[in-house]
Amino acid sequence: MRSDDSNTDHGPAGWEGHLAGAAFDPTAGGAGTLPRAWARHWRADPGRPQIWDRRDGWMTRGELDSASAEAAQRLAALGLSAGDRILVSAAASRALVTAHVACLRLGLVVVPTNTAYQADEIAHVVNDARPRAAIVDDPERADWIRAADASVERLGPEVDIPNGASVTLDVSAPRAPALIGYTSGTTGRPKGAVLSHANLLASAEALRVAWRWTDSDRLVLALPLFHMHGLGVGLHGTLHAGGSAVLIERFSPEAVLDATAAHDATMFFGVPTMYHRLVDHPRAQALGGLRLCVSGSAPLPAALHQRFEQASGQRVLERYGMTETAMLVSNPHDAERRPGTVGWPLPGLSLRLVGEPAEIQVKGVNVFAGYWERPDANREAFTDDGWFRTGDLGAVDDEGYVRIEGRAKELIISGGYNIYPREVEDAVRAHPGVEDVAVVGEPDPEWGERVAAYVVGESVPDVEALRAFVSERLAPYKHPRVVYTAAALPRNALGKVQKHRLANGEVSPES
Ligand code: MCA
Ligand code: AMP
Questions:
Q1: Dist. CA 478 → ligand 1 center (Å)
Q2: What's the CA gap between 188 and 286, in Å, rounded?
Q3: Which of 203, 297, 423 has the most ligand 2 atoms within 8 A of CB, as the residue to mutate?
Q4: N or C: which terminus of the chain has fewer CB atoms within 10 Å of its end residue's CB?
């Protein structure tokens, strides 16, 4: 096993299996940064298609190179320079991809932000990251950004502002920050995980090697581009391999199946909720022609894995990652893809299990150096000997397959989106009919987990009333889907709510 200080002695049989003789080069031939790695493909063969969207069709590698350079010059003319943060919140499109690439080429630090966020959620990101500009495709969200900080320049994804003079591009150092991804980690308000070019490039390179990703691959990309899955895996992976991607602004089984057929796609990446919706589609079999289907962001139930194979002939490859680390562990491309497991550590990653129940801890070029301006959180997140604590509980079997067995952190994952109970509890508690509340995740066949609120109060609002009440503060995916009235919440001697007793149904709701 790669770590010599682990407290486990399981054999890592298979852990070298991702490589199968291929070379893993996290610097991409010395390129060192994302845009420099991507430019190798742009310059080598500029005429090949790279990004497709429904409005504008295909854009070639050369067009992405020149359009992103022009957009970077326009951003520079606004006064933006390397190290400045830029909030980016827009639906997937060619223009968004161009703007994202432009930001990275200029050395800006992209802060991807969920398009479902409401005013409070946006304000938190603006106040914390202090971006100098924002790329946003919705006037209401632009207003919320202005309300949070009127000095933030607001632009559309087209970056439709006057041209600027020529500037030097692609000169960031590998250790320079490229992205700040907001995530709550264990507790509290979301904090920004700062990922460098070197972190993100190492992850893209690990996936290129492990998934045998080549410039002939064409990905159907129906994930949003404001989270690691769509952005760091789908988009960065495509640009790093020199392949192409078909962007789907809004997931539906039909859109994925149509795009697969129309564009001769070779790959699809999705969250388990997407596979749940695809599996019963009468045309699901068409996915059998793809070279690779990958699932991640939440556990893929073994039964769904098997049903999907029956329906489509595809044996889905499940992998595991985090905002702070990009991708960590993946089932193998060439060996058995084992349902209910996430596979073997990716090239460049060391993984160990610590304690009982065992927490997964990791180290590697892909792992971030820390949270934005949060030394307190960094002390908790890393062990004294420098391992990142994932907060996920795991086990490794005899053949080295990692199984995620639970979470030490309080987190609900619904449809691949992370929801922090504390944030929902704070919003629900503001309702006048609520005296006390605890929010937990309940198993759900479609969403994986759904948000359940146990509420104590004289006149507890029903689920519709509560959803309406929290809608100004919380993105819709965080709204409670069930509300139980409880006489009291179970607490331990220290007064802390014992959530496991709610989730296990030990405390029966009154209704
Ligand atoms: C939408 N809704 C949700 C969710 N998504 N509710 C709970 N959980 C969700 N995930 C709400 C909508 O706002 C709407 O609310 C109602 O559910 C029905 O919406 P519907 O049209 O059915 O949903 P949809 O728009 O089709 O979205 C489903 C989706 C989407 C396509 C599965 O949730 C999605 O794109 N998920 C992917 C998230 C993702 O990229 N995660 C990666 C994180 P109302 O009725 O009130 O209007 S990165 C990560 O986790 C790590 C790094 C990793 O390992 O990848
Ligand atoms: P995020 O904070 O959005 O980066 O979400 C990361 C978390 O998603 C991880 O810490 C895991 O708890 C979870 N996760 C991601 N992929 C998987 C998977 N394949 N199986 C189980 N959990 C996963």
A1: 10
A2: 44
A3: 297
A4: C
The two tokens of residue 464 are 């519709």
What six digits make up the tokens of 11?
């054999």
| Distance in angstroms (rounded) separating the CA atoms of residues 290 and 278 | 14
d(CA 107, CA 155): 18
Q: CB of 392 closer than 6 A to ligand 2?
A: yes
Residue 373, classified by CB atoms within 10 Å of its CB into exposed (0-12), middle (13-18) or buried (19+), is: middle
Cross-strand partners of 195: 179
DSSP output for 69-135 = HHHHHHHHHTT--TT-EEEEE--S-HHHHHHHHHHHHHT-EEEE--TT--HHHHHHHHHHH--SEEE
- Determine the residue of 179, 229, 412, 424 to mutate for testing ligand 1's pocket, defined as the one with the most ligand atoms within 8 A of the Cβ atom: 229
pLDDT in tens, 364-379: 999 999 999 999 999 9
Cβ neighbours for 334, distance < 8 A, ≥ 6 positions apart: 17, 20, 212
Strand partners for 440: 452
DSSP string, 396-434: E-TT--EEEEEESS--EEETTEEE-HHHHHHHHHTSTT-
To the nearest 10°, report the CA torsion of 221, 222, 224, 225: 10
Beta bridge partners of 245: 51, 219
User: Cα 84 to the chain's mean position, in Å?
Assistant: 22
Cα 141 to the center of its chain, rounded Å: 21
Give the pLDDT confidence of 180-196 residue by residue, as tens digits.
999 986 566 899 999 99
4's tokens: 């010599």
- Contact between 378 and 348 (Cβ < 8 Å): no
The rounded distance, in Å, linking the Cα atoms of 395 and 404 is: 7
Would you tell me how many other CB atoms lie within 10 Å of the CB of residue 480? 23
Query: CA-CA distances (angstroms) from residue 477 to 116, 141, 369, 377?
Result: 8, 17, 30, 26
Per-residue pLDDT, 504: 64
The reported pTM is: 0.96
Domains of the chain with CATH codes: 412-503 (3.30.300.30)
Give the phi and the psi of residue 93 in degrees, each rounded to 5.
-165, 165
pLDDT, tens digit (0-9, with 9 covering 90-100), for 295-326: 999 999 999 999 999 999 999 999 999 999 99
Q: Under a CB-based contact definition with an 8 Å cutoff, are residues 211 and 219 in contact?
A: no
